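This section describes the prediction task in plain terms. A model, or a person checking by hand, is given the sequence of a single protein chain and must write out its three-dimensional structure as a string of tokens. No templates, partner chains or ligands are provided. The sample shown here is typical of the held-out split.
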Amino acid sequence: MRAVVGLGNPGPEYAATRHNAGFWLADALVARWGFPPFRRGERARVSEGLVTSVPVRVLKPTTYMNRSNPATDLLVLVDDFQIPSGTFRLRSDGSSGGHNGLKSIEGALQSQAYARLRIGVGPLPEGAGDWSDYVLAPFTPEQVEQVEALLPQMVEAVTQWVKEGAP
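The expected answer:
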């Protein structure tokens, strides 16, 4: 069983924020793969099905990002303000880069050896205050277009990960 975890914050007040880019991609994956709608699970919204005969569970944790829980055979979908909007990066391991959700997963796993797909929501505007204010603010219309245009490529990258594992 492969686990794909889209990180974000629950609640309508966060739905359109940059911090929920992982939720957006999780929704796109479920739609593309024809999985059933998300249902309530323990501490997460869950959808599951098969991708070319590989069982896959897609999760959207219902806890806030800095309280996320890990799974095995894991790919984490997460926003990253250090990567320009309209781009993404898939890696098999690495540091949290200061991301609280990834720090939480690393702490629970006691390892940085899990796959992550970072969705660009940056750059942080010059003179911007706290980065958390930036990621918890809504996308600009241009950024919405950039992320939505990138969804097919990200879906393909995650599908490839499901089939073959981390790059």
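For orientation: Residues 65-70 have pLDDT under 50 and may be disordered.
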